[in-house]
Amino acid sequence: MGYNKDKWGRSKRTVWWLYGKERCIKEWGNTLPSPADIQEYKENWSKKALKKKQYFKCTSKANTTKVSRWLRNYGVNRLDYHNVYKDTLVVKDSSTFIILKLYFFEENA
User: What residues contact residue 101 under an 8 Å CB cut-off, 6+ apart?
Assistant: First the structure.
């Protein structure tokens, strides 16, 4: 179980490792979401978060890799942040976004 691959070469085990088994089951049931499903899910909430200005413009000191790593270490699921532009990350949860901004503001101050 979990080793059958879809046409993109992904298995449930891989997708569950990336996004969390419970979260995937909550969002898509027991079916394996396609890359388009995941992208659509992220784009739906990203539009709302962008309107609320919940985006982080990355810098040379706080690049997308460093910020993404911080988010994952903070416990944010990969489904709850989205790299919408080359140097911009959108965060779904407003309180997490505020902590992110404060953390990187303090680090650069």
Answer: 56
Contacts of 48 (CB under 8 A, 6+ apart): none
Phi, psi for residue 40 in degrees, rounded to 5: -65, -40
Structure tokens at 62: 């706080």
> What is the domain partition of the chain in residue ranges?
1-33, 48-108
6: which residues sit within 8 A by CB, 6+ positions away?
32, 34
Handedness of CA 8, 74, 85, 60 (dihedral sign): negative
With vertex at residue 105, the alpha carbon angle to CA 107 and CA 55, rounded to the nearest 5 degrees, is 130
pLDDT in tens, 27-82: 999 888 999 999 999 999 999 999 999 999 988 888 889 999 999 999 999 999 99
Q: Residue 68: enclosing H or E segment and its boundaries?
A: helix 64-74
Confidence at residue 61, expressed as pLDDT on a 0 to 100 scale:
85
pLDDT for 92 equals: 94
